[in-house]
Design a protein that fits this description.
There is one protein chain. With 391 residues, the protein is an alpha/beta fold. It has 14 helices and 15 strands.
Length: 391
């Protein structure tokens, strides 16, 4: 989970093609110079470096892992990890999963991987004006693809692969498989009166559909204070500057990837962002008592009832909507089923808007961007005038 990992997640479900990487030009479009050579954008530089392109693919391995050994176990066959030499070597760390003892299965070479059959996870998309990305490439809204449980031996599992269904039968064994090394673990911030907030910044901060506004965190903190009036809060984030702007009054830290993970894993109370980084720490926690996540996940800000994606409904979380109302995971699943049955928007899944419809969606996109910019400006005024007191 890092700047770039969500780009990788969107690219992975089909294939990592240069055209798909170029499609993110609008999100990573600043000029730069590397080793005396000029590039018009980060995209251009990435495309000139095959190793980086491969690393983007490898980042996906780190985002979500547990379906792999457990699907293999269902079949009574061994498992492997393609691209294991790049496992978790990303923008957070050049040392890989140095803080974890993770079984990557048997070793296979690239030639063996190329000969495997291929399972591709579901890839349903809604084309709306909620963001330039959603209008151009579609918003990933897929749920479970049950046929993953029917794959044969020598199959490459490929795609988003974040559904609880894919590993639900083995949830009690996640702690054994995703084990933090004793020397990397910490209970320094494990307390009955402390709630950890995992705030995602990075490339999210300029995306109106993704970046969570202060209101979400304030409402979630109010909910936590109904559990304990004296509840304290601390932010763990990869982007302390973004956290300072959103929650200037709250203590914030970015330790390193391992300690960030361990602090979240050992929290008794959690408020998470719409990012997969906190999901496995929460699932493997021996301390967690209550956790709040944003309803509709990656489209909390703009959804009228769909999830981005339905794979991100987890039993370990209660979900908060934009009005501060709480729903259980099961309630969310039932609501989504009802939404799909009646939604005219959902009926257009996979269909790009055209003509007047496209023009209207472009206007919506512009309006959402304007509202996002205005909110950012207002938050700045709040900080600078002392309406919100920072630390």
């Amino acid at each position: 989970d890092s700047p770039g990992a969500d780009i990788a997640k969107e690219l992975v479900p089909k294939s990592l093609t240069l055209d798909k990487l170029r499609a993110y030009q609008d999100r990573i479009s600043f000029p730069l110079s590397v080793a005396g050579k000029s590039f018009p954008s980060l995209t251009s530089y990435i495309l000139s470096q095959p190793a980086i392109v491969l690393s983007l693919w490898a980042m996906m391995i780190m985002v979500f892992l547990p379906w792999k050994p457990f699907i293999a176990e269902e079949k009574g066959v061994p498992f492997c990890t393609a691209g294991r030499k790049n496992f978790a070597n990303n923008i957070h760390s050049s040392r890989g999963m140095y803080f974890m003892d993770v079984d990557l299965g048997i070793e296979v070479d690239d030639d063996q991987v190329r000969k495997m059959a291929r399972f591709e996870d579901a890839d349903e998309r809604l084309f709306t004006g909620n963001s330039p990305h959603d209008l151009t490439h579609g918003c990933y809204v897929s749920g479970v693809k049950p046929s993953i449980h029917d794959v044969e031996d020598n199959t490459l599992l490929y795609g988003n692969l974040q559904a609880q269904n894919y590993f639900a039968a083995y949830t009690d064994r996640l702690k054994d498989w995703l084990k933090v090394l004793p020397e990397a673990d910490t209970h320094e911030y494990t307390a009955d009166d402390l709630c950890i907030i995992n705030l995602r910044g990075g490339e999210y901060t300029d995306d109106p559909a993704l970046f969570l506004d202060r209101n979400y965190f304030v409402m979630a903190m109010q909910r936590m204070r109904k559990i304990r009036e004296d509840m304290r809060f601390m932010v763990v984030t990869e982007d302390e500057e973004a956290a300072r702007k959103v929650l200037p009054e709250i203590e914030r830290h970015h330790f390193d990837m391992g300690k960030d993970y361990a602090v979240i894993k050992n929290a008794r109370y959690l408020i998470v962002s719409n990012s997969s980084f906190a999901v496995m720490p929460a699932f493997t926690s021996g301390e967690l008592r209550y956790a709040i996540a944003p309803k509709y996940w990656a489209r909390y800000n703009v959804s009228d009832g769909y999830w981005a994606s339905a794979q991100n409904i987890y039993d370990i979380f209660d979900y908060m909507d934009r009005k501060g109302r709480i729903s259980s995971a099961e309630e969310c699943r039932l609501e989504l089923e009802a939404y799909i049955s009646r939604s005219r928007l959902w009926d257009r899944t996979g269909k790009r808007p055209e003509g007047i419809g496209l023009s209207m969606q472009k206007l919506r996109c512009s309006a959402i961007r304007t509202g996002f910019t205005v909110r950012k400006a207002w938050r700045k005024i709040e900080r600078e005038t002392g309406l919100i007191h920072g630390q």
